[in-house]
Amino acid sequence: MDLYAPFVRHVVAPLHALYEGNPIYSILRELEQTQWLSPEELRRRQWEKLERMVRHAGDRCPFYRERFAAAGLDPARFTLEDFQRLPALTKADIRKETPRLQAEGMQDVRIRQGRTGGSTSVPLEFVVDERSAQRKGACALRHNAWAGWHPGDKVAMVWGATDVDSTFKLRMRNLILDRRFALDTLRLDEAMMHDFARRMRSEQPRVVYGHSHSTYILACFMKKHGYAAPTVKTVVSTSTVLADVERAEIENMFQCKVFDRYGCEEVSLISSECDRHEGMHINLDHLFVEFLQNGRPVGPGECGEIHLTDLTNVAMPFLRYKVEDAGTPTAHVCSCGRGMPMMEKVQGRVADFIVTPDGRVIFGVSILDNFTAKFMGLERVQIIQDVIDHLIVKIVRGEGFDEKVVRGFQDRIPEFFGKEMRYDLEFVDEIPREISGKYRFTISKIPNPFQEAAGRAIGRTPPA
Ligand SMILES: [Zn+2]
Q: What is the DSSP letter of 89?
């Protein structure tokens, strides 16, 4: 029984926030109430925030003044249709127009610098004002609570480049307040995995939090080496698409439910699962989320490119930001009773799409779920499409690998990718990670509608 956890939750954490002048817990209380409002009331409030943000952007940002004029949008009075005429804000816009995107006259507002980068190798820099960052932090706490994770719970993190122990101050903070220990996914090797598995047993964390795929890799490793899982109450996965097979493996290892969430560095939490696991609730307190195909909104159940309008960051407004992910809105009303709308799986974040010679576009994660997951004995697979009708299938052999697997591949590749697809199997000792520490399951050099999305840097949702 960890008696220190409730002490942190009820005493240390609120006192620390008070000391820092951070209203995160009062914002959290507000968010815990508003989540039960009706969808209509939440939408009404969201629209009010959107109107305020558009007026603010028109008043303070030269970039948007021009955009609004060109799109014929009057920030003082506009409809949804007017707003939808506004061109998307692209990553190229942000890189090129950073100074003109930042609001003028904000000298008295404290700001935080943000940066995201990674697999695209083109870093994106932005700023977030302190108040917005606090609201984002409170929102993450709300979603943590959905998963049963409260301040003070000891957390095992599976994460790239954490800084929990980098300075004396951070070490003290971590010991007293954050209570995290991490498996650094930037430098994984067998010895580190063994150390982490043993540490989990001695530290007995209550929460596992990490990149979806890396957490899955950890669960597989623990299973393979016969490690008993600590008694955790929840696993929270983020940053990469959580495939069904990964969820099953993680839940089986840790004997609890996985709470998947979706976010990015630029706007923080976008959506997350509640305890009903019927899809992800969209964080409409802080965001206006659009799903578009060729610039038009898609209907429920249809996949669209995700565009985000941040309703709180006044230092650098993001209006209709094309985040380069795709997702599916749904009309499903969650049985939990929360009024926040739902979306289904996010696509496009760990793998490229494969374009087949017969004109189909197959998402890499679907290949993972529906093709390679059918074969036992594979440690890792990476499929590289170098030309339209050729695949290089890199395979790291695992336990139980034999000739049957090879024959299985030979049989199923034409079935899955079409008869015109040629292929070479390459057996390798390892498949290198992306610079972010994550694996990219499929790489395609063939342009397709989601090519840019598939290759994007995956934003790290800051741990709250
Ligand atoms: Zn729900």
A: B
Whether 239 and 373 map to the same domain: the answer is no
**Tally of CB atoms within 10 A around 6:** 13
Residue 345, domain member (yes or no): no
Provide long-range contacts, Cβ within 8 A and 24+ apart, for 48-52.
Answer: 49/288, 49/311, 49/312, 50/83, 50/288, 50/309, 50/311, 51/78
Beta bridge partners of 353: 363
Measured in angstroms, how far is the CA atom of residue 454 from the centroid of ligand 1?
28
Q: Which segment, 83-92, 320-329, 448-457, is predicted with the most confidence on average?
A: 83-92
Which residue pairs, CB below 8 angstroms and at least 24 apart, start in 65-70?
A: none
212 and 321 assigned to the same domain: yes
Q: What is the pTM of this model?
A: 0.77
Q: How far does the centroid of ligand 1 lie from the alpha carbon of residue 117, in Å?
A: 32
User: Domain range spanning residue 373?
Assistant: 353-439
Tell me the mean pLDDT in the region 63-73. Answer: 96
Distance from the alpha carbon of residue 464 to the mean position of ligand 1, in angstroms: 21
- Compute, in angstroms, the gap from residue 348 CA to the centroid of ligand 1: 24
pLDDT for residue 100? 96
Cα 136 to middle of ligand 1, angstroms: 19
- Same domain as 119, residue 55: yes
Residue 347 domain-assigned (yes or no): no
Average pLDDT of the chain? 86
pLDDT at site 221: 85
Query: What is the Å distance from ligand 1's center to 344 Cα?
Result: 12
420 in a structural domain = yes
Tell whether the model's pLDDT for residue 367 goes beyond 80. Answer: no
**For residue 423, what is the domain's CATH number?**
3.30.300.30
Residues 50-54 have a mean pLDDT of 98
Question: Domain holding 206: CATH number?
Answer: 3.40.50.12780
Domains in the chain: how many in total?
2
Higher pLDDT, 386 or 370: 386
Q: Positive or negative, the Cα torsion across 245, 246, 250, 256?
A: negative
Element (H or E) spanning 260, and its range?
strand 258-264
User: What is the CA(158)–ligand 1 centre distance, in A?
Assistant: 26
Between the CA of 333 and the centroid of ligand 1 the distance, in Å, is 8
Distance between Cα 268 and ligand 1 center (Å): 20
Summarised one tens digit per residue, pLDDT across range 103-125 is 999 888 999 988 764 333 345 78
Whole-number pLDDT of residue 33: 96
339 C-alpha to ligand 1 centroid (Å)? 8
